[in-house]
Amino acid sequence: MALAGVACGESYTPLTSSTFQAKNNVTIDTVNQSISMTTSGWDKNAYATYRFADGPLTLANPNDELSFSFTIDRPTRTDETDNDKVKSLTFFSMALVGSSKATVIGHGDPTDYTSSSCALQLGFSTNVANTGKRGYLFHNHGFGEIEKVDVTESLAGGTPFDSATISGNIAWSDQEQGFILTLSSSAVTNKTLTYNLGKTYEVRDVTFSLDGPDGPSISNVTISYIPEPATATLNLLALAGLCARRRRA
Question: Domain limits at 170?
Answer without folding.
Answer: 10-248
